[in-house]
Amino acid sequence: METYLYRKYTIGEIINSVIKSGFTLRSFDEHPSWSNESVPGEFILVAIK
After folding, report:
1. pTM score, two decimals?
2. In this structure, is residue 42 part of a structural domain?
């Protein structure tokens, strides 16, 4: 049996990590879940370095 760790990252943690890594955030889009449109499903973050 394999074991693994699961970590939920907040959107703020992700965006701040991108910025702290020296990237310039160009755009950030949020798309609803395929199964439930009232909850977030996918995010697209575009950044340049």
Report:
1. 0.67
2. yes
